[in-house]
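Supplementary Data S3. Sequence and C-alpha cells for construct A.
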Amino acid sequence: MINTSDYSGEEDPISAIKRFVHENGHSLLGAVAAAGGPCAHQNCLQLFCDVAQAQRLTRTMRTEFKHFQELLTLAEADERRPECLNDHDLEAIDQMAVQLESLLQRVGPDRGPIDIGNMLTKRA
C-alpha cells in the first residue's frame, strides 16, 4: 500500500469528520431535515453510519458532505423556502453551512492511501 496522504493537519481527514459528527451530528441532522425534508434526513443518517464504520474518508462521503453543505447554503438563501422555517431554523441552517464549509476546507481533497495491489487485482 502506498500512502499518498500529504495531510498537514493535526488529525487525518476521517478522524476530523468523525469528531465533527460526534460534536455536531445532532445539529447537522436537524438542519438537513429542516432544509431538505425526510429524504435528506435519511441520507444524513446513512452518511453518519458510513462515517462511523469507515477507516478513511472516501470520495462518496466527501461528496455527500458537500451536497449537504450546498443544500444548507441554498436553503438559507432561497426566497421560496418553506414557510415552516422560522428565524431560528434559518440561523441554525446558516451556521451549519458555514461549519460544513470549514470542515471540508480543513480535510482538503481526497488524498487517502492507494492500494495498488487491489487496483491491479481488479484489472487482471
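Construct B, processed identically:
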Amino acid sequence: MIKIAHFPVLIALSIVGACSSSEGPEEKTETSQQRTFTEEDKRIARLLTVGSDEIDESASPQYRATLCSLALQAIEGRMRGALSDEQLKAFAQAQSLYDQRARAGASAEDAQLTRDEVETAYPDESDRARFAIGCLQDLA
C-alpha cells in the first residue's frame, strides 16, 4: 500500500519521467554543459529576486527585524493609494510586530544603532522593499 506521504515523491518522479526525452546520448552530452555564472551574475540575480534573503546569516534577529520593518514601511508608502484600509491596517500590524522584535532585548540606543546600520546598508527604499514579501512570508 502506498502511503500518502509518498505521493509528492511519486508525482515528482512521474513529472521527471514525462519530461525526459528520447534523444540519443550524443544530443544529451551537447546540452548537458552548464553555464558558469560570475559573481556579478549572481549579484544581479539576487537584486532581481523579490523577497530574497541575502542578509548575512550572522546578522542578529534585531537586524533582520529592523530590515523587515523598513521594508514593509517602503512598500506601504508606495502602495498607500492602492491598498484598502484593512490592508493598510495589516501592514501597520506587521510593521509594529517587526518593530517590537527589533527592540526586544535591546536598549533604545542599541535599537537606534541597528536601525542606522540597516539604513546605511540599504539606503534605497527599492532595495529595502525587495525584502517585504519574504518578511510577510515569515509571519505566515
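The first helix runs from residue 7 to 19. Residues 1-22 have pLDDT under 50 and may be disordered.
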